[in-house]
Model the fold of this input.
Amino acid sequence: MTIDPLIESDLDDVVRIERDSFSVPWTRKMFHDELAGNPFASLFVSREGGTIVGYACYWVIFEELHIMNLAVSPSHHRRGIASAMMTHAIAHACACGVHEAMLEVRASNVPAIAFYTQFGFQKIALRERYYSNPVEDAMILRRRSLDTVNATHSIDDQKALHMTKAVSG
Ligand SMILES: CC(C)(COP(=O)(O)OP(=O)(O)OC[C@H]1O[C@@H](n2cnc3c(N)ncnc32)[C@H](O)[C@@H]1OP(=O)(O)O)[C@@H](O)C(=O)NCCC(=O)NCCS
Done:
């Protein structure tokens, strides 16, 4: 698996995975605007055998890492791809002096909540009726102390970091 910066020509594949993953998917223009017009945004893709199998978009802003979007192609779930991308994002944020990460997730998104929880995120608030189609609450999750490997996740963190290092170089 490789992790590379997302470029414009990746967007067809990214938008396809996005539509497979969310009931209210980001549009191609939303990805384009993040890529071309948001100085706080970082976007990257993960590939297996040259095929894009996942992507992430995050902001490093106000001394926080905000995970804005993260998805893996359904046929590639549970292979550690999201873990590798999350570790990549956290390593970048730590290098920028950021120590805390935040995100919003649909309250019914059990797989994502399980993923983030085992990655050290904890629920800190609920935003009622935040999402549409279907209307539902958002859970606000936070992970503090980004630079310390989470005790419950140390082995996976190390494994994913190794994968990320193998990718970058
Ligand atoms: C959430 C998502 C990104 C996880 O991607 P992934 O590559 O499958 O995740 P990983 O393989 O790195 O999973 C790491 C760990 O997270 C937990 N986890 C991931 N998916 C899970 C699921 N469906 N059920 C329970 N736990 C899960 C497990 O602890 C897993 O470790 P294990 O496979 O050894 O048990 C993926 O399910 C996805 O793309 N979902 C649709 C988009 C989405 O909801 N994005 C998040 C929006 S905030």
The first strand starts at residue 2 and ends at 5. The pocket of coenzyme A is lined by residues 21, 70-72, 77-83, 103, 105, 109, 111-112, 114-115, 118 (CB under 6 Å). The chain is about 35% helix and 35% strand.
